[in-house]
Structures are given as C-alpha cells and as structure tokens.
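Subject: sequence -> structure tokens, single chain

Hey, anyone have a minute? Need the predicted structure for the following. Not urgent.
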Amino acid sequence: MPSIADLEFQMGSVQRTVKLPNFLIVGAARSGTTSLYHYLKQHPHIYMSPVKETHFITAQFLGLPQKGPTERVRNTHIIQDFESYQKLFADVAGEQCIGEASADYLYYYKKAIPTIKKFLGECKIIITLRNPIERAFSSYMYLKRLGYEQLSFEDAIREEPRRLEMGYSYLWRLKSVGLYYKQVAAYLNSFKSVGVFFFDELQSQPAKIVADAYSFLGVDDTFRPKTNVTYNASGTPKNSVLFDFLTRENLFKKSLKPLVDRIFPEERRMHVIEKMKYALLKKTTMLPETRDKLVSFYRNDIERLQELLDKDLSHWLN
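Reply:
Had a minute. Here:
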C-alpha cells in the first residue's frame, strides 16, 4: 500500500506530485534538535520545513488542545491538517533531501511510527540524545525561563505523575522523556535508516557531527555550515525584560519586521538574536542529591541503551 507521500493530488486544474519529507529529526527534546535543524538548513541540497516543530504527526492522534500552561501558545503553532503540512514544502526546488524536526515524535513513538509510515512511508530518521539527567534539568529550566514553571526542580519532578495523568504535554514530563531505550529501539526496528547523534558531541565538535549527519543523509559532507551559534539554550535570564523582548512576539517587533526582513536575511537575523539571548542567560545547577536520585532512576535504561547502540555511555552515570 503506497504512503500518502507517493500519491498525486489534484490541485485546482493542475495535477502535481506531493513533496513531503524524506527524513525527520524526531527528538529527543532539549537535545540539540534546534541547532541541528539550523545546521542542516544551511546545506544547499537540504530543504527544511520553514516551521520547526510542526507536530503534524503527533497532532493526528493526540487530543488537542493538550493541557498545561504552555499549550495556550503551543497549540496555535501546531500543523494539524495534511493540506497545511504539504504547503510547508511548496518551495522545494530540487533539493535532494527534504526534512522537518519535531521533538515529540520520539517520545510518542508507539503511535508516531505508524503515522509516519502512513504519511511519509520509509524515510530516514535522525535521533539526537542527551544525558537524560541534564536533559530533564534543561527542560525544567526552559519552562522556568518562559515563566511557565513556578515550582522547584525537585517539586516539579514530584508533580510529574499528576501532570501526566492530567494530560500535560511531553514538555512537562521531565523524567519520562529521558527513558530512551524503548523509544530508540522502536525506531531502529521500524525504519531501515536511523542515525543517532549525541548532544555533547554536537557541542564539542559541531563540524564533525554535522558532516556525519550530511553523510548519513547522502549529501555533500564537505559543505561547512556556520556552527558558532547555540540555538534555544536554557538558563536563567540576567535581564528578564530584555530577554522576553527578544523571545516573545510583540507589536513593536511586528511593526519593524517588514523593514528588518529587507535588511537582514532570516538566518542572519536568527544568528544575532540567538547570540544575544545566549549572552543574557546564566547557568544554574541542580542539587547533588537530586542528581544522585536521577542517576539511580536512569541507570538501567542507560545500560540497556548503550548495549543497543554499542556505545559507551557510562559518563552519563558519573
């Protein structure tokens, strides 16, 4: 049975083949998916969806709107219908690889995988993983930075089961998102071509890891993108007013947008804004006793994961 990606659709009086992704960045959240999205987007033979985090696949089976303070904003950006999803790729102009990145596809793997198969068929899968302890804290700090989380990290962890029962989105599932073994195993068993990359390596040697990603996708791996920007970093803003101005939509920014668009290309503008945001953030750390508890929580899953991937992840347990 062909996937929807293989079918032709009648658009007005013109018959045309649907252009849809042939690869996906599926997560994990807070593990470098945004940075990798922008690095891949710079390659001349790769077309990335202009919307990062479409959530189209998970929108097909999640009850929307989901609950939780973030959902008032998030639900307005989710691409729910196929026609709108297809339009994201209307500007594909012969690029060899077409992709999108939605970090919840990994967590919701049970239903995401058959839905991907239905709409996209056999596509390449990119997974990025981060030490789950650091990932959990980064996710917490991200929610804290945006003003949605009022609890301490320890209390937020204790609240997770209740929030899960209430139907909060995956962003609030600080611990459970980091249980990677079953998520990764399911993708490895379901798709022929799965590439697994690691956040700490993307940070320490971005040029090499991005070249590896290019090679995995089958495009020229000698192309060198600009990798001197950290995207979507977490931390505590030193100046919350200025940080909110850079992060959130407001009338002043909207009024300046036409002028700014003419002067600065989008990617250049993103570089400047992300650098300013990064400079405004100060790093915080979790309590040692909290880290010890999370090491115990994740130990078995990490040991199974490193056996599955044949990769030493013992440093995650230090």
